[in-house]
Write a structure and sequence with these properties.
Elements (H helix, E strand, L loop, with lengths): L10 H7 L10 H8 L5 H4 L6 H22 L16 H6 L2 H33 L4 H14 L5 H11 L4 H6 L11 H25 L3 H9 L4 H29 L3 H6 L7 H9 L10 H31 L1
Helix pairs in contact: 4-15, 6-10, 6-12, 6-14, 7-10, 10-12, 11-12, 12-15, 14-15
Length: about 325
């Protein structure tokens, strides 16, 4: 007489059953349990990897910002009361007269150059991405990396020697007859574009590479033109990245100091120039903390610009991931 073997549930069935109900029966609770990943001990401590970056941000940005905010609302050490007294005079003075003119000039210059840099950098980056020549692509990206970090006194000297009033290009082309003057708002804008356009190419190239070829093919198969594809597909997806590049260009132009100081001096009113003059002691007695108030104004402007960009960042993340 042969005894029938006792059925043994398979490991998968026993695991799916979760110990409830008939062996091998899949219950919704079991599926939920298996679908939820268990967090290991290492996952709960993953944030420790970002601790050095957080400490660097705190020391490099957080503490100086707090110091600037405190100094902007207190009297300086050369004031009659000895300093350290709460006051709003620094903020009030930073938003009046020549200081307000300089702040407005910096915002206007940054907006203009960032807008032109974004408009010019996008098609150039698209040409690089779609190029079939690898050498051309690597050369443009490498050159953009160098030019994006080329600024300060060397950049000012280069433009003064070429496009200044006595520059080589200015004399040979007779640009002064057409009203060209490098030491003006327009001339400074041209100089800023020298490093802003390469910076935009580096910023927007990864986003252009994230555009799926299937999207373009699907648009063309449905009768869309090139303009319609860019208007209804590519640009909406790239909009947050374009805005991010615009913010980056705005910040680079807004905080630039050495190039403008070496080239135009005080002929073009800029907030960075006013801060430099204030730090050099070129302020009235008792207004030594005015530079901190001007710096706080710049921080507020930068935060307002970032507040526009951050809500739109998630819009294209799911498409370009």
């Amino acid at each position: 007489m042969t005894t029938a073997p006792t059925p043994v549930p398979t490991p998968a069935a026993a695991d799916l059953g979760g110990g409830a109900g008939t062996p091998g029966t899949v219950t919704p609770e079991a599926l939920t349990t298996r679908a939820t990943p268990r967090r290991g001990r290492g996952g709960s401590r993953a944030w420790l990897a970002a601790l050095p970056l957080l400490l660097f941000f705190l020391v490099g940005f957080g503490l100086p910002t707090v110091a600037i905010a405190i100094g902007a609302f207190t009297t300086s050490s050369d004031s009659p009361d000895g300093g350290g007294t709460f006051t709003t005079a620094n903020i009030t003075d930073s938003l009046q007269g020549a200081y307000w003119t300089a702040l407005y000039g910096s915002i206007k210059l940054s907006l203009l150059t960032a807008l032109i840099g974004t408009a010019v950098g996008l098609p150039l980056a698209q040409a690089v991405v779609t190029s079939r020549f690898r050498l051309f692509r690597e050369a443009v990206l490498s050159g953009s990396g160098v030019l994006a970090n080329f600024g300060g006194v060397p950049l000012a000297f280069m433009f003064v020697a070429t496009l200044g009033n006595a520059g080589e290009v200015t004399r040979k082309l007779g640009l002064t007859k057409y009203g060209w003057n490098l030491y003006t708002f327009s001339g400074l804008s041209v100089v800023y574009l020298y490093f802003l356009v390469p910076l935009m190419i580096l910023t927007i190239t990864p986003a252009l590479e994230g555009l799926r070829v299937q999207w373009r093919e699907a648009a063309y198969n449905n009768g869309a033109t090139v303009v319609q594809y860019w208007r209804h597909v590519a640009l909406p997806v790239l909009l947050p990245s374009l805005l991010g590049g615009f913010v980056l260009l705005f910040g680079a132009s807004f905080a630039a100091y050495a190039t403008a100081e070496a080239m135009v001096g005080s002929s073009v009113p800029l907030i960075s120039m006013q801060i430099g003059d204030a730090l050099s002691g070129n302020v009235l007695v008792g207004q030594g903390n005015l530079a901190l108030a001007l710096g706080l104004d710049m921080i507020v402007v930068a935060c307002l610009v970032m507040a526009i960009y951050l809500p739109l960042q998630r819009r294209s993340a799911k498409w370009l991931a």
